[in-house]
Each structure stands twice: as C-alpha cells, then as structure tokens.
Specification:
globular; 584 residues; 37% helix; alpha/beta
Length: 584
Amino acid sequence: MLLEKISSPSDIKQMSMAQLSDLAGEIRHGILLRDSLHGGHVGPNLGFVEATIALHYVFNAPDDKFVFDVSHQIYPHKMLTGRAFGFIDPTRFNEISGYSSPLESPTYDNFEIGHTSTSVALATGLQKGRDILGGKENIVVVIGDGSLSGGEAFEGLDMAAELGTNIIIIVNDNEMSIAENHGGLYANLKLLRDTNGTAELNFFRALGFDYHYVAEGNDLQTLIDAFRKVKDTPRPTVLHVHTEKGHGYQPAIDNKEAWHWNMPFDIKTGKSTVTAMGESAAAILGDHLRSLMERDEKLVCISAAVPGCIGFGPDQRRAAGVHHQDVGIAEEEAVAMASGMAKRGAHPVFSTYATFIQRTYDQIAQDLCVNGNPAVINVVGSSIFGMNDFTHICFFDLPMLSHIPNLVYLAPTTVEEMIAMEDWAIRQDKYSVALRVPEGEVLHSDEAYPTDYSDLNRYCVAHRGQRVAILGVGSFFGKAQRVARLLADKGIDATLINPRFVSGTDEQLLTSLLADHQLVVTLEDGCVDGGFGDRIARFYGPTAMKTLCFGVRKALYDRYDVNELMRDNELLDEQIAARIEATL
C-alpha cells in the first residue's frame, strides 16, 4: 500500500504517473473508510484528491505554504503529510480532526481553520510577512465550496492583488457550496467555465490577478502541468480549477448536497448505518415556518448555505419559492438583509447554526439592533450536545447575544413554547428577536404558553418552594426539573423557574426570592463565563443571597465526549444536587 510508505510529500515526487493514479485510489478509499465509520466531509474531499497530489508533487511544502479554506478539502493533504493513519486505521480515526490544525501538524498546517472565507485573508499575512522578511516561498491558497461568497474572501482577494507579489489562489470550483451556490460571483464562474476561461468578463482579472483555467480538474497530468506553469510566479495568480464534487463515488456524485457531510454509512450501498435520532426541534420549527408561509405572504426564511439546519432540503426550498432566500456562505449579509427586509415591512427569519452566528456580531449589533428592526434570528444547535470540534463549538452564543443592547434573546424549554415564541417574534413589530432553538431530547408540553411576550424579562415560576430556587435555561430546564426531584427526595422543596428571557433580568421576581430563599442556582447549556448565571449573580451581589452558576467553563474543547464534559464541569444531575445540598 503506497499510503503506508508516505511520511512526507517528498515521498511522492519520484512516483510515476501510474503510481500517482494508484495513490489517488488509495486516498479516495481512505476518505470513504474514515467517513463511513466516523462521519465527515465526503464530497468535497473526494473531488480534490488529484489536485492535492498534484500540489504536493509540484510545490515544496513545508517551504511553500498551503492554506486550505474551511478545511472541507483537507483530508488528502493530511494523508500526504504523515497522517494517513487517521484514515486507514480505524483505531486512530479520532486522533485526526476534520480540519486544518497546527496542533496536529505544525509543519504542514499553518492555521486552525474551520469557518469559511478566511483563507485568502490569512494567506495575505503570510504573503506580506514573506515579502518583509525576504523569503522566496510560494503562498498557495485552496478555496472552494462556496467560500468565495463570504465577505472576508473578497477582502483577502482585494489585498492580495494590492500587495502584488507571489500568491497562488486555487479556486476549487465544483459548482457547489454546501448546497447550491448563490450570488452573482458564481454566475461569473459559470461564464468562465462555459468559455473555457476566455470570457472577457472576469472577476479575478478585474481585481488585478493573472488568471488560468483548468477544465479537467480531476486529471492528474493536466493539474501537474498547470501547477508547474504558475509555480514561483512573481504575481498574484488565480488558478480556476473545475472539479467534480464527490468524484469517484457515485452516491456522492448523484446527490452532492446530501453527501457534502455525512454520518457513518455503508460504502457499498451509501445507506446510513446510524439509527434514526428521532425528533428534532429544529426540524419541527422548519415545518412550522413552512406552514406559516401559506398564511403569511410577508414571511421570508433566510439561510446562509446551511438551509438543512431547519430542514429546508431541495424539495422544501423549491416549494417555498420566493419565501426562501439563501445568501450563500455570507452570514453577515443574511443579518443585514433581514434588517432591511424588516424595515420594508416583510417578516424575515434567519436561521443558522450557533457556531456561525459568531461571524455576525457587528451586523446584529449595528445593522439590526441599533436600527431596532423586528427581524428574527433562530440560533440552531446551541448546546454542548451540538458540534464538538473546537472550531465549531456551539455554546458561546449566550455570552455573545445576551449582551447586545436592544436584542431580545429567548430560550424556550419545549417545542410548544418554541412555537409560541416564534409566532410572537414574527408577528410583533417592536423588537429584534433571537430564539435559541432547543437541542438534544425534544420535550413536549400541554401547557398553555403566552401568545404575547412583549412584557419583556418576565420569568415563569413553574413551582414555588423555599430555601433554594433553580433557574433552568432553555433545554436545561428539564435538567432543573430532575435536580429538583433529587432534592425533594432529601426533603428540600426547590422553587423551579423557567427564565424564558436570557437577555434580561426579572428584578421583581428575583427580589421576591430574598424573603424566603438562601440560594439561587442557574443551569445553562453553554459557556458560564459571561453567561446567564453571571447576570443573576451580579444582581444578587450586594445581598446575602448565595448563588451557584452551572455551565461550561470558557475553553476550546476539541472532539470532546459529552458525558466527560458534563462530569468535568459538574453538570451531571447528581453533582448539581450534591453541590446545592452542601451549600444549603
């Protein structure tokens, strides 16, 4: 097996074309083996196998610097830089992350990259640093999977052209983002494909780049010839490479969107080997929004390249028609667009994963909330039970969003409460509203929830006890209920509170607890530093009330085990109950 003999890219430089072709097959098998047992990005990596081999065959890493945008195409690079064991040895799969990581390979991976559109901008730093220090190395960027639609990608291209020195940008054009591409830029990429790169209208040349087109982006010899042509160029250069997403694996070719990232599957059939996970609050919310479209002609559901986060698959998007708008990988545009829609009188609802909300702080604060426009943002996957790679952690949203002035951040506990809050948020016209979609086990209730949440920051007392009050935020309200039952077994009748609002304080209720409570406990499914509990503890600071705040300590947790994370942060029900009892 050729892969087992490769410890560095130099090992492939003396291989024949026949051997390189065999190597491509082994790399493709490694991608499928790992993803079929572990889950991961399938289509993007399969489509960039030959290009990665050609890159390492022609260029001289680590002297030449490679930067892979969003890391969707990073697996073949990892296999050629001493990490093949993470793809051919199932006992070692978890030693390798799915993303570019200097922690794994400080020699060959230059940056931790998990979010999109950052590669060119990062590479301009390498470009400028090389120029200042008198280096001669090539700076090579790989960007694709819709990443060009992000604003930072344009900023990077703009600066790379301004610097005017060697930087080689490989545009991996597989005609797809995560789903389909969106934006006028991709119309120009199509024009360039259709004209074999000869169209006069050329986005890259307009910015000042030398431009070359490769139509056969999965042909090794063609790629090697193209890379040799641009190696050591003194100018900013774009090499536009047309590849096939999912190349070499028919299920991934036939359904490119579904195979962008996949849970474990059977390689022969392409069928999932994962037991169905049951209900999803996000999917239920998506169904509800689609039903609302039939009654609310003003409603527009916005996505930013991940429409599947609330169940908007291809069929659902087609059925929604003008009531759905995907902006591509451009979350900042999504927020600003939602603000503009709301200003004009539409009912915009933007839904995306919590990890990508981090990219929109300024737009939420300035474009939306300073203007006070009544758009709705659904924050999906915001939980320790969400994505667990440290570039994709989904539980920093509470500190981020709850401190933005003029934003109402709601945390429903059940599906029915989520629907009631969403309906109010869409219907009202006074507030910018974010809603933390419940994650994990889906909870239902026959409780009659309010139809109006305009009386802001009013918490709901589910049970009034004494001595200790437990505030369970959103999906952790179920945990609060379980802890209260454990305390009841010890003779402690705890007050149980659903805060509902995580961006404000119910001062009247909290003040009332001073009369017959010694301890207030907060439970939040997220980062405790700067989170909801800190707000409550600060309120009680000048008083005799004790507080305990439970959540996850601020850190970069990488590929964590949820049970271990909860145990280490004292978030198990028994641990919380024991701390409460000891404190009392």
